Each structure stands twice: as C-alpha cells, then as structure tokens.
Description:
The chain is of the alpha/beta class. It folds into four domains: 7-139, 3-Layer(aba) Sandwich (Rossmann fold); 144-177; 183-297; 316-379, no CATH class. It is built from 18 helices and five strands. The protein has helices at 14-26, 46-56, 87-90, 94-105, 119-128, 145-155, 160-166, 171-180, 190-197, 205-213, 216-226, 236-258, 265-273, 293-314, 321-337, 352-360, 363-368, 373-379, and strands at residues 34-38, 60-63, 79-84, 111-116, 135-139. The protein has a five-stranded parallel beta sheet, sandwiched between helices.
Amino acid sequence: MATPSTPDDLLFDREFVETVRDWVVDGTRDPVGVLLIEQGQPGAGISTMWTVFESSIPSIAFVHEPDCGVGTHNVIGQKNVFLFDDMDAAISSPVAMKRIMDCIDQQRVPVIIAGYYRRGTKSKLTAALKKHKHVITYPVPRIMGRVAIPYLEQLGHPDANRAWYDSGGDLRQCIRTIRVGDVTHNLPDGIDALTELLGPPERSFVDRARIASGDPTIITSGIFENYTKAVRPTDLETCTRILDSVEAVADLDNAMYDDPTREFQPYIASIMGGVPSLGPLTLRQPIVTYGTHWAKSNHAQAKRLSERDLARSMCLEKTDFPWVRSMVFDANERRKSNPDASRVLPLDGFTSEDLWKCVTLFQPGAKRRKYTKSQHVHTFPVSTPPAGQ
C-alpha cells in the first residue's frame, strides 16, 4: 500500500473525512467561517489528508501563508482557503498569531486551523475566537490499533504491533521506523545506553547512532548532565567538544520546534553517537540520575511502557484507563456503603492485579481519594479469577 492518494485511502473514520471534505468544498459559501481540527493524537496523518484534498478537489487552492491581501479566488479561478496546519508552533509567536487572526477577521476567505494537540494551544484559540460566530470544531477521531497495525504490515513493517504500541499511537513515527530500522530492543537503552556513550568507543559509529536514536532527547540530556564524570577535569578540549555537540543538538531541537515538518532526529542521533570519539572518556563513577531532568524523562518513558504493557494485558486502549479508574473508585465507594454489594459488572473481566496497576499509574487520583491497597483487595479479592475462567 502506497502513500494515500484519495480520500478512501485515509485511515480516519470515513464520516470524519467526508465531513471535513464537505466543509472544504462548501466553506466558501456565506457566511464565511472557521474550521478547527482538534487533534488528540500526534502523527495521525492530518497533513496527509490536506495533501489528498488538494489533489482531489480541483476547485480549491489551499493558502498556507497568512496574507490579508489574498482574494476569494486565485488567478486560475480556484477558491482560496487558508490552511494553517501548524498551530502548536504558530501560537508561540505573537507576530504569526496576529497575522492569522487578521486573516480570520477579514471574513472573506474561509480558514482552517489544524496541527495542534497541546492544551495550551486549544485554550488560546478558544479565547482568541470567542467573538467569532461561525466557528466549527471537528475533533479528530483516534486511529485505533486494529486499523493502523494492518496498514503498517502492508507497508512492510517487520514488527508493526510492537512499533504501534511503543510509539503511543504515533503513525508517523511507526512509518519512519520502516526506513531507519527499529533496533532499540537489540541495543542498550536507558542507563546502559548512556554508559555506553560516555565510555570508550567499543561499538561502531553506526551502532552508537542507533543507540542514541532510541530517544535522542533523553540521551542528549543525560550526556549533558553526566559528561563530567567521564572526562578528566583538566581535559578542557574534550569538554568543549562535547558542549559544542550539545549546543548543536539544541539548535536542531529549536529548528524542529519552529517547524515540526523538519525531521532532524537522525542528525541528533549521529551527533550524540559521535560523542565517544570526541576524546578520551572513562566513567569514574556510576551515573547518578536521581533528581535530574534525564531521570524524570526516563521515568516518563518507563511509565509509557508500563501503560502499553497493561493495555495489552487488559485488551484496552490507553485512553480507556480513566474510565477503568473511575469504575474502580465507584465500586470501592459502593462497598464501603454496602459491604454486601457485588462488584461492578463492567470490571468482572479484569484481574485484581491489573486493576490495581491501572489505579497506581495515576497516583494523584488514588492519593486524593485515599484509595489504598487494603481497600482494593477488599473490593476486588485477589483470588477472584476473571470471568469465563
């Protein structure tokens, strides 16, 4: 299966695609409005959808640069539609945001705002568009694993199932691993990866770059916070080279933030993979991660992996966890008010251990409700097997 070229090739829910397409076709009618595409899943293929629409709707031309001088039609008679497909980046620039709002205020050309899933962007857009009457919001439906995994397999992914859950549902990242090779499980990661990159170069440069590509942000932070443990205090030249490398990575990170269409991760991985070659490195003491930014990032990655494994065990999507936690808390409250009350039926298919893991993945909620392991065992006895077993 090649890159989507028609609306039918897109992985989104068919009703969503047709609804957005109808708005694009009819959006130039009075009154001229604003369409917000509210995204909750990064790398889902929204940008691809616009490319498909642009090639399949000959009467429409997307205008990507905010310019109040743009008329309703271009020189060949196509209807102009403003498309701002990178609001997470644009929202941080007052100048870019003002130009976009000026295009909306002129109420002559329809406007589509997409490419955002951060809460801050959503709240700022809501405030900025509060006075506009003709604003429609279409939430992007999540692409589920049962749709994405077969698609990745048709593209030739060697391990589509693991890639999908490891990425947290980021289709773009999964497709990228087909090109660069998903080797993170065959090479060290976490503390072992950092130890490897802060010691003598025992592996080839290609393997070291692959190690760094597992999570370039975490590796870069870890090297910056721990490189002094591997360099002699008097070796200022090696220190300078490492700091120059970290600074170059920071510049690439900033460039990707300013323009998310840029993909500099391979360059970042190559720079970090080259650190062992910058000078004599020998770790004089174990890497201390407690309290560091790298440790927090690594903990977040570990939590994501735990959520992935638990979702597989419970045959759920990670987005279902809040519902499960709510049902667990409700069942506990019912038990306290009526000790003879039976368990809540929707949870009968899950083990007590899996339900406890689901609750503890969100510690603030459990602590706020003073929900303890003792209460949990009383409500969901460990000896109770799943239904049907």
